[in-house]
Amino acid sequence: MGEDLSGLNVKELQSIENQLEDQILFDEIHELNRKGSLVHQENTELYKKISMIGKENAELYKKIYEAEGPSEVNRDSPTPYNFAVVENRNVPMQLGLSTLPQQDDTEQSAAPKLG
């Protein structure tokens, strides 16, 4: 190839140089467009996955909300996860009264010392 260039003047060599630079730039632009297209496609797929996960999350939340009832879900939580203390209403409560043990009469009448 160098033999073909030996008879060219400076203007012709500069023209060939410009053509080569333009081709290199064109190839680089083409490669960047291809990579950009791949990144865009990947972002679109990730967006779809996020959307699907969001829908699944909403469905699960709805199931929990329906199962536990509106008073059991902590909507004011600042975290993305909700925790709730749930009483088991099916367990019987045992309440009873008890008396305090009797103290001696001398201990009851003594006034407490202050200061």
Please characterize this protein's 3D structure.
- This protein has helices at residues 2-5, 10-68, 105-109.
- The radius of gyration is 41 Å and the shape is rod-shaped.
- The longest helix has 59 residues, at 10-68.
- The mean pLDDT is 77.
- The protein has three helices and no strands.
- The relative contact order is 0.04.
- The protein is mainly alpha-helical.
- Helices cover 59% and strands 0% of the residues.
Features:
115 residues, single chain, mainly alpha, 0% strand, rod-shaped
| Helix content range | 55-70%
Beta-sheet strand percentage?
under 5%
Summarize model confidence as the mean pLDDT.
77
Low-confidence stretches: none
The biggest sheet amounts to: none
Q: Total helix count?
A: 3
Structural class: mainly alpha
Secondary-structure element sequence?
A: HHH
Distance between the termini: 111 Å
The geometry reads as: rod-shaped
Count the strands?
0
**What is the alpha-carbon Rg in Å?**
41 Å
Quick gist of this model?
With 115 residues, this protein is an all-alpha fold.
Layout of helices and strands, plus pairs?
Elements: H1 2-5, H2 10-68, H3 105-109
